[in-house]
Structures are given as C-alpha cells and as structure tokens.
C-alpha cells in the first residue's frame, strides 16, 4: 500500500510541475492565511473535545475566475502533537511529535462544483503517505459571504495508520491495550460546511463545521473511544495575492 501511494505521489508531482508552471506563469495566485481556534477531539479517535490553534491556510486558487477545467496546486497539512500524558486513555503509549505533510492537489472545476484529489508525504511525527478524495459546492450569497458544502474520504498508508491507530507489543504491555497493527486504506469519511465573510477588504472571518466518521481498521483500533469525530473552527484570515 505504501509503495503504491508513494508511486502515485511521484507521478502526480511529475505531471503537476509543467501544468502548474503553465497555469501560474503570467497569472495570479491567491489564498487565505490566518489563525483561529479549533474545538475538536484531543486526539484522533478520542471522545473528548479540546481547544487548539487553527492554522488557516486554505482556499488556494490560481485565477479564481478562470474557466472550468483541470488544475494542480501544492497541498500542505499540519498534524498536532499527541502526548500520552494528555489523556488517561493514552497512558503507556509513545508520544507522537508534530507532523508536516507536503504534496500535490489535483482538482477539476465545473461551475460551482469542484472535485479534487490530494496526496502528501508526511515528515516529523509520521512518515506515511496520506490523501483525500472529495468534492465541494460553492455558494456565493453576495460579494462578502461565501459558503461551501463538502464531502471527502481520507486515506492513509500503513505507516500513517500504524502511527495513530496502532499499538506495538511494548505499548501493549505498558498501556494495557491489546497489540494492534492496522492496514492502510480509507480511514475516515467527512462532511463539512465552511463559511467566509469578508468584513474588510481582503480580510475575512472564517468558520468550519465538520463531522467525521472513522472507518475500517482505524475505527477498530483499541485507542478509538468514538468513531464519530466532530469539530468546529473559527478564525480570521487575510487574502494573500501574488502575480507571476
């Protein structure tokens, strides 16, 4: 599974390089960047919600008014640290450090509907390969307020699911959880509603409500207390615009 996903990452990156150069040369590129608060499970699979920083880096778009069609963009993600001391349910488990993920996003726009696929390689806390398949529908109520409704399927390699859902033999002895070695594949399904309200030029209030459901081997992990994984996020972002 890891080799297959890694090969797809290499192929997608190779294909995306000329496409991105052609798309961005002499054009514009913009995205929302900001900071907020996220209220979500304290670790993947937890049934306790906790507040944490929400680093906003989203709505990247090359030429927002470009015609429908296929485009490529970078894909970045950040996964917070998991400390065993933060939860009674993790006592005896190894800590997991902060993780960054870098890869590529391919999306196809057809009017207000955008379908997409992403693939990223992790570093730091995990070294697996992850990605999503999904679609979003954009609703512009006026010049200031934009809404998106979306659905996506999250996937991860054996290395990723093993890091966040697995229990080694040593961890089993120290924690009391049964040893568990999950396979990679689809690990979560998500539904989301997002909102962006531009109260000042290029400055917006951002909000997101997400419902996630852990699937397959991930959902069967002895570390998972609840397959349902809701989250609410609120923050302020600035629209960053660049021309090439």
UniProtKB/TrEMBL annotation:
Q: Where is the signal peptide?
A: 1-21
Give the location in the cell: Cell outer membrane
Q: What GO CC annotations are associated with the protein?
A: cell outer membrane
For this UniProt entry, which segments traverse the membrane?
Answer: none
What Pfam families does the database record attribute to this sequence? MipA (PF06629)
* InterPro entries listed in its UniProt record: MipA
- Which superkingdom, per the lineage? Bacteria
Identify the keywords attached in UniProt to this record, alphabetized. Cell outer membrane, Membrane, Signal
The record's section on PANTHER family has: MLTA-INTERACTING PROTEIN-RELATED
Tell me which family the UniProt entry assigns to this protein: Belongs to the MipA/OmpV family.
Q: What is the recorded name of this protein?
A: Outer membrane protein
């Amino acid at each position: 599974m890891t080799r297959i996903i890694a090969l797809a990452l290499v192929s997608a990156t190779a294909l995306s390089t000329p496409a991105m150069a052609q798309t961005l040369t002499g054009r514009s590129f913009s995205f929302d960047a900001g900071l907020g608060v996220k209220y979500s499970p304290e670790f993947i699979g937890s049934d306790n919600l906790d507040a944490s920083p929400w680093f906003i880096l989203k709505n990247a778009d090359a030429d927002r008014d470009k015609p429908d069609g296929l485009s490529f963009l970078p894909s970045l993600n950040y996964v917070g640290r998991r400390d065993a001391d933060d939860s009674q349910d993790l006592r005896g488990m190894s800590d997991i450090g902060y993780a960054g993920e870098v890869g590529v996003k391919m999306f196809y726009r057809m009017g207000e509907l955008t379908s997409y696929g992403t693939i990223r390689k992790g570093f730091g806390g995990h070294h697996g390969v992850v990605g999503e398949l999904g679609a979003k529908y954009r609703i512009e109520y006026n010049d200031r307020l934009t809404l998106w409704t979306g659905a996506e399927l999250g996937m991860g390699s054996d290395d990723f699911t093993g890091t966040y859902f697995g229990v080694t033999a040593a961890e089993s002895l120290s924690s009391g959880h049964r040893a568990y070695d999950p396979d990679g594949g689809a690990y979560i399904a998500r539904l989301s509603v997002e909102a962006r309200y531009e109260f000042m030029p290029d400055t917006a209030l951002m909000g997101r409500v997400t419902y996630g459901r852990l699937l397959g081997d991930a959902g069967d992990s002895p570390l998972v207390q609840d397959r349902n994984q809701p989250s609410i996020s609120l923050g302020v972002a600035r629209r960053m615009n660049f021309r090439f």
